[in-house]
Amino acid sequence: MSLRKYSLTTAVLLVFCLLAFVPAEATNLILGSWQADANGFTGILQINSVDASGNLSGTFFGNPISGFYNSTTNHIAFVVQPGSTPVLANVQVFEGALVGSNPLGPPGQQLLAGSFIAFAGTGASAAHDHFAWAAISP
Hints:
Layout: H1 8-19, E1 32-38, E2 41-50, E3 55-60, E4 63-70, E5 75-80, E6 92-101, E7 110-118, E8 130-136
Antiparallel strand pairs: 1-2, 1-8, 2-3, 3-4, 4-5, 5-6, 6-7, 7-8
């Protein structure tokens, strides 16, 4: 019998699909360093703040992000602008949902999962511009 090793994204998306029709309760997002996997690339999603209006700030793989988090719907959306010079072709647009508690982790650990769109400057192409991402809270 052989065992296959699946990436964090694959495992999380499987759980996300299974839970897609089970709405999570309204939840505040945990601030801090989340372990992230975006299309097989692993790194840190650093959520520094979410203000009362839902404005989110932080970094993703070391690049600044800005976006929104809705604690009523548990929807997250943010833009990553890699590099120091803003260039539209380098933008990545992420969206997803706080699925709730990570069923495979310790109590209280949160799980985000979703998809992102990338543009030519990030290595994407017309045939391959939508990708999966997931993150597990600290």
